[in-house]
Design goal:
It is a single chain. By secondary structure, this protein is α+β, with helices and mostly antiparallel strands. About 30% of the residues lie in helices and about 10% in strands. It has one domain. The longest helix is centred in the middle third of the chain and has 18 residues. The N and C termini lie far apart (about 45 Å). The chain is elongated and about 55 Å long.
Length: about 140
């Protein structure tokens, strides 16, 4: 449950604060802010909060809020298809246009940005059916 508003449907964000406009908190990831310095003010703006909330509501009415890529997990983050840069941060056709947004689960969003290493690499170790580590097959 959200510590600020007692909203019980915050399970998608994985934090102790929901991502609704009335409670938005810039979440920290690895000790660093989620946004570049030039984008912090944008992500705190009322215009973005309302745009984000309306997009999530639209996606929930369409398919229950499923990830737009894998269609398996619930959406986690509203992602800009065209990345926000210092050059386009003030262009509402890029930043606030629903056609430039997609609702992604955490795994798909991490894959888009390349977080957690390259997902296509072989794992560093393998395990047998009992869970014991075994030498990696080449």
């Amino acid at each position: 449950m959200c510590r600020n508003c007692v909203w019980s449907d915050f399970r998608r964000c994985g934090s102790f604060y929901c991502m609704m406009p009335r409670c938005i908190k810039l979440l920290k990831r690895g000790g660093d802010w989620m946004a570049y310095d030039y984008a912090r003010a944008f992500y705190k703006s009322r215009a973005w909060q309302l745009c984000r909330a309306s997009y999530i509501a639209e996606r929930q009415s369409v398919d229950g809020g499923l990830c737009e890529r894998c269609h398996k997990a619930l959406g986690y983050i509203v992602h800009h298809k065209t990345p926000i840069t210092p050059a386009n941060i003030n262009d509402p056709d890029v930043t606030l246009n629903h056609d430039n947004l997609e609702y992604l689960c955490k795994a798909c969003h991490d894959e888009v940005h390349g977080y957690c290493g390259n997902q296509k690499e072989k794992p560093r170790c393998e395990f047998d059916e009992k869970g014991n580590p075994v030498p990696r097959s080449r």
